[in-house]
Specification:
about 425 residues, single chain, Growth Hormone, Chain: A, mainly alpha
């Protein structure tokens, strides 16, 4: 099982950023994502307290809502990519997804009862699933072929700034206005509406097939066979297998909390620490992926995750192991999130780019949901240390196998690459 190291996309000259610069379209989409993440994460931060304290629902009810929040977008991501490719309108498919999420924010202010909140959270997550692949396809189309991972890094850094600001703004509001959940929801709605407006007015309507026709290249219509590209299939298998060993941030934080008082005392800020590292490393690791090899950086990211598991297993207490775990976890996301989209989009014809990105994101999301469920059962059966050790050993075995496969592919590719 291997993936070609030659994952650079074919040149598409229309509307590209010049070499060494990030397209204004990428930055604008980053601002849209920043505002949308402020909207979604401010709600996610207060949702547990709102449902259990303000609405008086049980922890079981919150568990159902949280499961919807984490997983509902996974099942529609490939559908959003497919519609984008079929219609050749990625901007407006993404716009519909953002608009759907903004719609859910407006009704959340007036929602009463478990069923209403669960339905609105589902609508919001469906909107996220619809918009993700078309938006990433626009980023890939707007970036220089040799700088796509860097472009995704810029976008993801801005996106993560919003993910960090949302909870902070929510907690500031609740500190100033105790019980002011309605104020948080109004902030969320306003941020989402501004983001949708910027997308509709400022982001150009990139149409891959029309742009290829304008350059004299006969545009290929979307075909499902595009997704049967062997390199894409291998990528999906590999990232799916590795994602089955990705247990999720919450379990790592709970493991750190269970080990010592430092993590327990600062638990609410552990998420902020991971996001801060992500913001700092997203662009440098994207640049490294474009220069050194995107699939290699994917492997490097999973080595970082393995290091995070090791830090969580270290019996030593105090700030050192906890901060190292957060740094390695943030590096893992910076090396895999945007880079995976850049790799998947480069392995197929541009007519199927959004579908390929959506397929990769769907596989990762579904496998991580399975991993979280399985690890929860494993923790219940074996305990914290033993269950984490099992996953760390499996990851330690999987990553070298991936490295060996990559090296074998590189050796096989050299004669062809040397040919004129």
């Amino acid at each position: 099982m291997y993936i070609s190291l030659r994952d650079r996309p074919k040149a598409e000259p229309v509307g590209r950023a010049r070499r060494g610069r990030v397209s204004s379209t990428v930055v604008t989409l980053g601002v849209v994502s920043l505002l949308t993440d402020i909207s979604s994460e401010s709600v996610a931060a207060v949702l547990p307290l709102y449902l259990t304290s303000a609405m008086g629902l049980s922890l079981l009810a919150y568990g159902v809502v949280d499961g919807i929040f984490q997983g509902a977008s996974a099942v529609v991501r490939i559908g959003g990519g497919w519609v984008s490719d079929r219609t050749d309108r990625p901007k407006w498919v993404a716009f519909c997804g953002y608009l759907l999420s903004a719609f859910s924010r407006g009704w959340l202010v007036a929602a009463q009862g478990f069923a209403a909140v669960a339905a609105l959270v589902t609508i919001d997550r469906i909107g996220k699933g619809i918009r993700t692949a078309p938006r990433d396809a626009i980023i890939a189309a707007s970036a220089d072929p040799d700088d796509q991972a860097r472009a995704f890094g810029v976008h993801r850094a801005l996106d993560t700034v919003g993910a960090a600001l949302g909870p902070l703004l929510a907690f500031v509001i609740l500190a100033v206005v105790p019980g002011g959940y309605t104020v948080v929801f109004v902030l969320s709605l306003g941020s989402a509406v501004v983001g949708v407006t910027i997308l509709g007015l400022l982001v150009p309507d990139r149409r891959p097939r029309r742009e290829r026709a304008a350059t004299g290249t006969r545009p290929a219509p979307f075909r499902w066979r595009h997704l049967a590209e062997p390199r894409l299939r291998r990528l999906l298998v590999v990232v799916g297998a590795l994602s089955l060993l990705t247990i999720g941030d919450g379990f790592l934080y709970l493991s750190l909390q269970d080990r010592d008082d430092f993590a327990a005392h600062w638990f609410p800020l552990l998420y902020v620490g991971t996001n801060a590292v992500y913001i700092a490393l997203a662009v440098p690791l994207g640049r490294l992926a474009d220069r050194w090899g995107r699939t290699r950086v994917l492997v490097l990211g999973h080595l970082g995750l393995l290091g995070a598991y090791a830090c969580a297993l270290v019996p030593a207490q105090g700030a050192g192991p906890t901060l190292a775990c957060l740094a390695l976890l943030g590096a893992f996301y910076a090396a895999t999130d945007g880079v995976l989209a850049a790799v998947a989009g480069s392995l197929v014809d541009p007519a199927a780019r959004a579908s390929a990105i959506g397929a990769a994101q769907t596989v990762v999301a579904v496998c991580r949901m399975v991993a979280a469920t399985a690890f929860g059962a494993l923790w219940f059966a074996l305990g914290r240390t033993e269950s984490l050790l099992v996953v760390a050993i499996l990851m330690a075995l999987a990553v070298p196998c991936y490295l060996i496969a990559l090296s074998r592919r590189a050796r096989r590719s050299r004669p062809a690459e040397a040919a004129p």
